[in-house]
Q: What sequence folds into this?
């Protein structure tokens, strides 16, 4: 007899990857690796100086080869022994996949992919540098497959659908202030248990009105390990 596994939806942000050595602009006074986000993370920045933007993401992509999944990434994989686990991440790295998680949805795009500047559906795996003159199959310049500020979040609808089926939600390493990602927890069924792992947790409106939130005020590695041990008992 098959017993349906409970569904855990995990929402992850920069705090999960930080212990692997990947930083974000929010950790550095509005700069991302020394760059103004308006220059490297907006459509206007790309239109103004595509070479700068391509170089920036080439460097971020190359950095992925120097880092490894940490204890938080690995602990989440262990949850799959007992639960159905869906990870919805704001991160553009591939550390969840490399750790072994089987279902990962990237809200903000992926560093190891590029897409056509004209046909958004033309997306390609990409591990080398991207330069001007790299074209899609229909002859248009390729760009990083990243959701920049001011752009729609194409995977949001799917993320809402996934969250609405949660039996439990785990939030890890995110300020819960970046919308629309921060709104996702509000789509979980009423009364769904919520665990929030972060050394400096910030309760947005959805979390403030919920009476079922347990805060684990730890960095991702320790906090997630402790929580997974508890859930696997």
A:
């Amino acid at each position: 007899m098959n017993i349906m596994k409970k569904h855990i939806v995990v929402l992850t942000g920069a705090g999960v990857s930080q212990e692997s050595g990947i930083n974000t602009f929010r950790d550095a006074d509005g700069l991302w690796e020394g760059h103004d986000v308006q220059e490297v993370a907006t459509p206007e920045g790309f239109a103004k100086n595509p070479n700068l933007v391509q170089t920036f993401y080439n460097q971020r992509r190359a950095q992925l080869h120097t880092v490894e999944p940490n204890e938080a990434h690995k602990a989440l994989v262990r949850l799959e022994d007992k639960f159905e686990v869906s990870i919805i991440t704001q991160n553009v790295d591939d550390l969840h996949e490399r750790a072994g998680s089987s279902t990962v949805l990237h809200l903000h795009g992926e560093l190891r992919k590029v897409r056509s500047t004209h046909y958004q559906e033309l997306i390609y795996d990409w591990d080398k540098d991207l330069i001007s003159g790299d074209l899609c199959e229909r002859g248009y310049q390729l760009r990083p497959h990243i959701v920049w500020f001011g752009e729609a979040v194409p995977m949001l609808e799917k993320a809402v659908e996934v969250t609405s089926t949660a039996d439990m939600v785990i939030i890890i390493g995110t300020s819960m202030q970046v919308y629309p990602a921060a709104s996702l927890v509000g789509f979980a069924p009423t009364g769904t248990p919520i665990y929030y792992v972060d050394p400096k947790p910030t309760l947005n409106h959805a979390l403030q009105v919920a009476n079922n939130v347990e805060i684990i005020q730890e960095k991702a590695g320790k906090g997630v390990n402790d929580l997974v041990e508890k859930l696997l008992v």
